[in-house]
Each structure stands twice: as C-alpha cells, then as structure tokens.
C-alpha cells in the first residue's frame, strides 16, 4: 500500500467533511471565496498572490476530501479483489 493511500486512510471523515464545508463555503455572504476564486481562475483574472493563496486555502480541504474518498474506494476495490481471489483458491482445494 502506498504512503499516500495510508495517509488518506488515517484521515477521519467527520472533521474532514466539516472543515471542507466551512472553508469551502466561507464567507457565506455575498458569495463563497472558493466560488469567487474559481470564477476568477476560469476568466484568467486570478493574478494576485493573495487570490491564489485564497484559492489554495479554501480548496485544499476539498482536495483532501476527494483524496480520502478515492483512497477509500481504492482500498475497498483491493479488498474485494483479494476476497474473490482467495475464495476462488479455496473452491479449487
């Protein structure tokens, strides 16, 4: 198992989801920073270092959440593959 998958496997779900929601949607009014910065990125207006930092700060928890989801899916696929392989070996004996 790779180091990256182990890292994501150790992250707890609840705090990661909470932090992703809070930082991803903050500030709630007039519009979340993440939405504003992504809009700026799409339009080629994300030029200031502060804006780039805001995008990274507000987007990092969502990337961690995506990594946790992907690692969990990968581990589940590996476990089911290993289980079916060992079941098939037990059937032939």
Order of helix and strand elements from N to C terminus: HHHH
Fraction of residues in helix? over 70%
The value of Rg in angstroms is 19 Å
Strand content: under 5%
Helix/strand/pairing class, anyone?
mainly alpha
The main sheet comes to:
none
Q: How many helices does DSSP assign? A: 4
- First-last Cα distance: 29 Å
Strand segment tally: 0
Low-confidence stretches: none
Task: Output mean pLDDT.
Answer: 88
Q: What would you say this structure looks like, in words?
A:
By secondary structure, the chain is mainly α. It has a domain of 46 residues. It is built from 4 helices and no strands. Helix 1 packs across helix 4 and helix 3 packs across helix 4. The radius of gyration is 19 Å and the shape is elongated. The two termini are 29 Å apart. The mean pLDDT is 88.
What topology emerges from the helices and strands here?
Elements (H helix, E strand, L loop, with lengths): L2 H8 L2 H13 L7 H10 L6 H43 L2
């Amino acid at each position: 198992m790779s180091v990256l998958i182990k890292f994501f496997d150790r992250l707890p779900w609840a705090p990661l989801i909470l932090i992703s929601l809070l930082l991803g949607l903050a500030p709630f009014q007039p519009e979340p920073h993440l939405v504003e910065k992504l809009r700026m990125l799409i339009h080629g207006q994300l030029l200031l270092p502060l804006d780039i930092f805001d995008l990274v700060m507000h987007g990092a928890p969502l990337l961690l959440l995506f990594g946790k989801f992907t690692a969990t899916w990968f581990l589940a696929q590996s476990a089911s593959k290993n289980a079916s392989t060992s079941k098939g070996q037990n059937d032939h004996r």
